[in-house]
Amino acid sequence: ADIGPASGQEVRTACCYCGTGCGVIAEHDGRRITGVRGDPAHPANFGRLCTKGSALHQAAAPGGRALFPELRSARGLPRRRVGWDSALDGAAERFAAIIREHGPDAVAFYISGQLLTEDYYVFNKLARALVGTHNIDSNSRLCMSSAVAGYKGTLGADSVPACYEDIDHASHLLIAGANPAWAHPIVFRRIEAAKRANPGLSITVVDPRRTETAEFADLHLQIAPGSDVLLYNAMLHVLLWEDLVDRDFIRDHTSGFDALRAQLAECSPGAVATACGVPAERIVEAARRFGNARAALSLWCMGLNQSHHGTASNSALIHLHLATGQIGRPGAGPFSLTGQPNAMGGREVGAMATILPGHRDPANAAECAELAALWGVPALPATPGLTAVQLFDALAEGKVKAVWIACTNPAHSLPDQTRVRAALEKAEFVVLQEAFADTETAPYADLLLPAASWGEKSGTVTNSERRVSRVRAAVPAPGEARADWTIAADFARRLAQRMGRSADGFAWADEAAVFAEHVTLSAGRDCDMSGLSHALLDARGPQQWPFPQGAEQGSARLFTDHRFPTADGRARFNPAGFPQRHALLPEPVDARHPFVLLTGRLRDHWHGMSRTGKVAGLWGHTPRAEVALNPADISRRGLRAGQLVRVAGRRGAVVLPLAADAALAPGQAWIPMHWGAATLAQPGANTLTSPATDPISRQPALKQAAVAIAPAELP
Ligand code: SF4
Question: 476: which DSSP letter?
Fold first, then answer.
């Protein structure tokens, strides 16, 4: 009773916001969710919830829901309510016609880390096995694809080695490019508790802003934006110089160290201090804290990932662990935090252009053939798929004609909004499968399909520590909204008919059957989940993978035997993370655009605020969108806090009130990512952000753009 579905008027489920993946008990009266409390039996949160999680019930039935399928007959006309059959038959006709005329790569799917694993799975099979395109990508591209590339390049697989329990065992935490106090509050509560229990726990935070997390740390390195790779290589330089590396571990369990060492000479703390914006002695101190730790754990998130050199940043940080043997034992390891509730599930399912189910690689012919056989299709497509920014560029160029968007809001969240909106205008056919009809993307939808939201559908999610939790419906979805996987499967069956193909592979009885098929594909892989099922999760509660068939339990941490899933069993010092000569920023700051714009999350809001923006109690922490500058910059430029300013970049401009914030270094500006056209009556921060992407992970550099700030001219 402690772990399975709650009885009576309560349902055990998981929070739909951040990747912490807290367990939630939702109370309901059969029609609406009336309250929530933290699940004391869930290992991610042990009963705690943050402010957002505590208001889940208030966000569960807000206004603005999509209630019925709506279709418009031509651009410029309003959408009209239609029945589900008509909506899905019409969509299948349009997709089939475009595929016939232009080929399968003329259509694309853009989905979401908010989807459940079962939703993800059906969309992925639909795109690759039925349509025959790798053009399926997720908004998780925007949050953690650089971590995926970093893990694969160093550890050999996208396997997050550590778990939350390691926070309790660590003697040193290196928190890099993350502000868990706001973005992963329950992880931060655990960090606070660990510090109380062990005052000797040392904490270093690396962040261009003096965040609440940085305030809590023993050492804050307020680095210049984009200088991460230099910093971690300089720390490694110190570790070598002071003989704080683990030479036995390097010799026995890694490859490539000599090549890296040869390049570290140019990365002394003195040599990089100016570029990093941090005194050399603080870099030395950070390295000593890491190198002398009994157990060092690194936690990171968007600050490393959302960069045009995100793979390099991730690799350089992981190298610190490989050089010191700080991996595969309690309290030690690299541990990336996922932003979204099921970004990790999407990685398992392989529902992104650059990965396949079971962490297979679409560029690996043998793995593609294996997957094709498992799916019962002759072959997987040969053409690489388009990643998020590429996908919308292809839409703008007319190469992709139709896009199916599910549970995400690209007209708010992708960089360079002007271009994204032009792409949606240009598309021949835009399907939007969404719970909300009032997002920035909704006006571009030719077909709007109402989707069930949190508390209304069932399946699973996987959190940052590889823990799979059940998500359960408590109340029926409003109007004619349906669970996402059922919409995708219904569409697939209709499309298969029009393509002259069998629809047998899309006839699951329920979400448990979808999950069962999904875990079968993972058997024998690093993310083996073949021993999991909905029934097992219901009986025994959330479980971590790997969890192979017949296992009694999953693995809390990975690589405990120091064998890695590479050809020679060794972890690699990846050249991607060696000292780089790339520009620190994706675009230069100059006299016309003198400020580096940073973007980020607030404590009490989530993404585009389609849920949290409708809960009055969540507006108290930060009641309005502002652009923040260091007080010295405000006075130097003759501005004043509170006045309206125009923030202009190379791609657009926004007008916002100005705020003074000493947490920022001079020369930096900061705008929260949440506000957009739906909440601000003007496009938000992503009007200004750069579409530059990391060359390996293809993650956009959402955190840095060059802007000018001047008083707004009154009309
Ligand atoms: Fe939800 Fe994240 Fe808060 Fe937990 S920490 S309650 S998962 S938003």
Answer: P
Nearest-atom number in ligand 1 for the CA of 51 is 3
ipTM associated with this complex? 1.00
Query: How do 627-629 and 668-672 pair as beta strands?
Result: antiparallel
Q: In the chain, what percentage of residues exceed pLDDT 70? A: 98
- Mutate-to-test residue for ligand 1 from 16, 52, 179, highest number of ligand atoms within 8 A of CB: 52
List phi, psi (to 5°) of 413. Answer: -100, -20
Domain 10-60: CATH architecture, name and number where available: Single Sheet (2.20)
Q: What's the pTM? A: 0.96
Tell me the CA–centroid distance for residue 46 and ligand 1, in Å.
Answer: 12
Nearest atom of ligand 1 to the alpha carbon of 49: 6
With CA atoms as reference, report the closest residue to 137 among 155, 110, 160.
110
CATH for 70-143+341-510, options being 3.90.1170.40, 3.30.300.30, 3.40.50.740, 3.90.190.10? 3.40.50.740
**Ligand 1 atom with the shortest distance to the CA of 20:** 7
Separation between Cα atoms, residue 381 and residue 396, nearest integer Å: 23
Q: What is the pLDDT of residues 577-593, one digit of tens each?
A: 999 877 899 998 999 99
By DSSP bridging, strand 23-28 and strand 10-14 are antiparallel
Find how far residue 30's CA is from the centre of its chain. Answer: 33
Q: CA-to-CA distance for 197 and 207, rounded, in angstroms? A: 25
Of 13, 16, 18, best ligand 1 pocket probe by most atoms within 8 Å of the beta carbon: 18
CA pair distance 346, 697, nearest whole angstrom: 15
Question: What phi and psi values does residue 169 have, to the nearest 5 degrees?
Answer: -95, -15
Q: CA-based angle 439:445:451, to the nearest 5?
A: 65
CA 159 to ligand 1 centroid distance, Å: 22
Q: Which residue ranges does the chain devote to CATH 3.40.50.740?
A: 70-143+341-510
Fold category of 595-711 in CATH: Barwin-like endoglucanases (2.40.40)
* DSSP H or E run through 109: strand 107-111
| Binding pocket residue ranges, ligand 1, CB within 6 Å | 15, 17-18, 20-22, 45, 49-50, 52-53, 184-186
| CA 604 / ligand 1 centre spacing (Å) | 10
Fold classification of 145-337 (topology level): Dimethylsulfoxide Reductase; domain 2 (3.40.228)
- Ligand 1 center–CA 338 separation, angstroms: 12
Task: Report the alpha-carbon distance of residue 338 to residue 320 in Å, rounded.
Answer: 21
How many CA atoms does the CB half-sphere of 174 hold within 13 Å? Answer: 32
Count of H-run helices and E-run strands, the chain? 26, 26
Residue ranges of the alpha helices (H) in 55-114?
Answer: 56-60, 84-102
Q: According to the model, what pLDDT value does residue 614 have? A: 86
- How many whole angstroms from 14 Cα to the centroid of ligand 1? 9
What would the mean pLDDT of 252-258 be, rounded to a whole number? 98
Strands 429-434 vs 402-406: parallel, antiparallel or unpaired: parallel
Euclidean distance between CA atoms 496 and 377, whole angstroms: 13
The end-to-end CA distance of the chain, in Å, is 63
